[in-house]
Amino acid sequence: MRRAVCPGSFDPVTNGHVDVIQRAAGLYDELVVAVLVNPGKAGLFPVAERMELLSEAMADLPNVTVDSFEGLLVDYCRTHTIPVIVKGLRAISDFEYELQMAQMNRELAGVETLFVPTAPQVGHLSSSLVKQIARFGGDVSRLVPAAVNDRLLEHGRRNA
Questions:
Q1: Would you name the residues annotated as active-site residues?
Q2: In total, how many domains does the chain have?
Q3: Is residue 147 domain-resident?
Q4: Span 89-114, pLDDT tens digits
């Protein structure tokens, strides 16, 4: 069985993330989307809510599961017997950083990394930009899954 993990903070999940996950799901028998738990960083959405939003966005992909992890990704891979990490790339600047991480992950645990370039129509998306646009009342409905858009609108009303 071919298994891979697609890690990230997904705060929130964007259509760029969805693009990479859908394409990776077509390459592997099982794809785990793993949400990073970073206790030192407060996200817009708690980890449990990010996982819920990802599960909803990936509901039509039966070979995709959503989990969370804390610490080193290679430790998660070792514990769950996952030999491949899938990472999306938006720009050359992403590649420079991700290449170093891929080399280190291979050195530490023999885990390979597959880079998936985002589709051109979503290559400009980032969670940070989506949050900034939403914070100022901009329309992000074309940038994120519908459930994420709804939660961003709810969050904006709560904090208004």
A1: 17, 41, 90, 127
A2: 1
A3: no
A4: 998 888 999 999 999 999 999 999 99
